[in-house]
Amino acid sequence: MSFKTDIEIAREAKKRPIQEIGAKLGIPEADLLPFGHDKAKVSAEFIAAQRGKKDGKLILVTAINPTPAGEGKTTTTVGLGDGLNAIGKKAAICIREASLGPCFGMKGGAAGGGYAQVVPMEEMNLHFTGDFHAITSAHNLLSAMIDNHIYWGNELEIDERRVVWKRVLDMNDRALRDCVTSLGGVANGFPRQTGFDITVASEVMAILCLALDLDDLQKRLGDIIVAYRRDRSPIYCRDIKADGAMTVLLQQAMQPNLVQTLENNPAFVHGGPFANIAHGCNSVVATTTALKLADYVVTEAGFGADLGAEKFMNIKCRKAGLAPDCVVLVATVRAMKMNGGVAKADLAEENVDAVNAGCSNLGRHIENVKSFGVPVVVGINHFSGDTDAEVAAVKAYVEAQGSEAILCKHWAHGSEGIKEMATRVAEIADSGASQFAPLYSDDLRLIEKIEVIAKRIYRADEVLADKKIRDQLRQWEEAGYGNLPVCMAKTQYSFSTDPNLRGAPVGHSLPVREVRLSAGAGFVVVVCGEIMTMPGLPRVPSAEAIMLNDAGEIEGLF
User: Fold this and answer.
1) What is the reported pTM?
2) What percent helix, strand, coil does the chain show, rounded to 5?
């Protein structure tokens, strides 16, 4: 049986004018800044006026560790939002924006799939409303002003060897990870070694996603540490006098983007930090606004629950005062088989034993999410080749873990295929069963926070951090940053730092390669193993198949 591609389905969407979508949430036309007919930004004035209203219920969608077999977390997020609306609930969706890097690399887009998509799909996966370009520009403006300050006499006495602010680009480009700038003589400044990160790893991205409003945004931007003097005292962004201009560049980007699902339900798409190298959640402004306007808000956290959900709970919820009422953990039969040792080429064959063997990864994630005090429901994202016996095996395993699993067919049938899940999630969210609490307290030492995540979430035996790293963490504690949460930068493919170690490994170690202080965002980034904050393209990048057809339509984007 052949199926339509995501982009074919998206092109057939019967979109409604964005003003009609806003009206579903009570947003007046005057408070929408349209970008064409099908997307708009919501005004800061309207958002500020909603703050005193009661919050709806918050539902987090997360997943098992990603595999080449596919999981469909965003698809499930969109499908569940449509499903809640289909059963008579007032629901909104909150997801992240797509980065150009993975769109042209390997991962593809971030708008869902099948009949559970957010549209306009092509524009969302490309330039959209320009938010990422604004973040890239603001970040690199600061980079330019740092070098310019040094060039014109270095009044702040910046130690050029200790400039910690890199540049960013929203593209996978391994050649830029490590480079030298200002070559070519006196007129070009002072040569120094630096590098590029991808835009989604920028502290400016994290700040935009955690800031409450423009005033908070500018304060956080000013708090960014960009360099150190010879006496190791910090130089802040506000010392360079860049925070005001950066805020100007980000003014419009701070406003959440409103679009719609294929079933014309409202979706906020705003911000896009990766979960493997950043904190992996959409903006606080979008989520908190949606909670004031809808009775149920479905949001997602990137990659597996060991990364996205952990950071959603320990960073986003802690910073924004949020508490999820229910968590949906997405899994597929195909992924269970891969975790059970089946090669991708053999996934079409029924293999209940492999499903049972691979369920250990799912079980570990169920345990971890429950440790935050939040009820968990497993959503089995259905693929056409799944057999009844394989689905039954997953359900039986989940039941043995003290949870429940529901088969979801939203990819093929939209809201009709996920009504059972929507009904159950609404019941749980309304029950008040959630007793949410972050995994560690603010006053724990930074190295102890890393150890809590390593041992309780990853099940590592130990954290391997040399004296230089431990000394750096102690220095930050002495400087007043010890109460910050930690943001783990780690491979998304495994609980360990070895991407090939699937299932639910134990007995491994967590090697910490580097730590970075994101004083403006308000967390410490812990770089583990071989993870890169500037990804590279795969051997055969998706860009090779992306083109315009004779009708001027985009082909190959998924």
Assistant:
1) 0.95
2) 40, 20, 40
Cβ–Cβ < 8 Å for 214, 251: yes
- Determine which one of 75, 194, 247, 261 is catalytic: 75
Q: Annotated catalytic residue: which of 196, 383, 476, 523?
A: 383
Choose the catalytic residue: 104, 196, 303, 372. Answer: 303
Q: 471-498 burial, b if ≥16 CB within 10 A, otherwise e? A: ebbeebbeeebbebbbbbbbbbbbbbbe
411 part of the active site = yes
- Where do runs of H (alpha helix) occur along 152-296? 203-210, 214-223, 237-240, 243-250, 284-293
CA distance 226 to 164: 5
Cα separation, 80 vs 421, in Å, equals 7
275 is catalytic: yes
Cβ burial 169-195 (10 Å sphere, 16+ → b, else e): bbbbeeebeeeebbeeeeeebeeeebe
Kindly state the tokens that stand for 245: 């201009």
383 is catalytic: yes
96 in catalytic set: yes
Clarify whether 107 is annotated catalytic.
Answer: yes
Q: Which position among 242, 275, 286, 405 bears the catalytic label? A: 275
150: Cα within 13 Å, side-chain hemisphere: 24
- Alpha-carbon distance of 203 to 517, in angstroms, equals 10
Find the catalytic residue in 35, 165, 411, 476.
411
pLDDT tens per residue across all 558 residues of the chain: 567 888 888 889 999 999 999 999 999 999 999 999 999 999 999 999 999 999 999 999 999 999 887 789 999 999 999 999 999 999 999 999 999 988 898 766 678 889 999 999 889 889 999 999 999 999 999 999 999 999 999 999 999 999 999 999 999 999 999 999 999 999 999 999 999 999 999 999 999 999 999 999 999 999 999 999 999 999 999 999 999 999 999 999 999 999 999 999 999 999 999 999 999 999 999 999 999 999 999 999 989 999 999 999 999 999 999 999 999 999 999 999 998 989 989 999 999 999 999 999 999 999 999 999 999 999 999 998 999 999 999 999 999 999 999 999 999 999 999 999 999 999 999 999 999 999 999 999 999 999 999 999 999 999 999 999 999 999 999 999 999 999 999 999 999 999 999 899 999 999 999 999 999 999 999 999 999 899 999 999 989 989 999 999 888 877
Name residue, tokens 């400044």: 189
Q: From CA 477, how far away is CA 354, in angstroms rounded?
A: 47
Catalytic, 174? Answer no
